[in-house]
Amino acid sequence: MVWLGACSQALTPLVILDEGSVDHTVYIEKVLPVAKKFGAKMLGGDWTFQQNNAPAHKQHLTQEWCRRNLPSFISKERWPANSQDFNPLDYCIWNDLVQAMDWRKVTTKLTLITELKRAVKKLRLKVVVQNVEIISGKVEII
């Protein structure tokens, strides 16, 4: 699993979980602290965390961790799972990331991880900002 966070300021570092499955425990221990750290670093104390309805995200202990540790988050009851209007990473930024990769270099898990990290650095901040602003209501979707 690869996790990447986005806000109107920047992207978080990639979190690559390449050993075993990702359940709520792994998600809470490995991913959420990165979201918390970089959310605070990029946005201060006034931001809202969004997830989709992946099993690890909607698990009650994950939801409780978010309630206790993040300034604000959208609970599983209030967020649609698969809407391109609400998930810019799933529908736009991941697409740009995949297109920025040199797939000829990907021959092993290690080269895939290396290429993912390289491609993230090539993503244009303008694309990230534009897509985050669309979901935050600052840009009208036509």
Automatic annotation (TrEMBL):
GO terms for molecular function: nucleic acid binding. Gene3D superfamilies: Ribonuclease H-like superfamily/Ribonuclease H. It comes from the Eukaryota. InterPro entries: RNaseH_sf. This is Transposase.
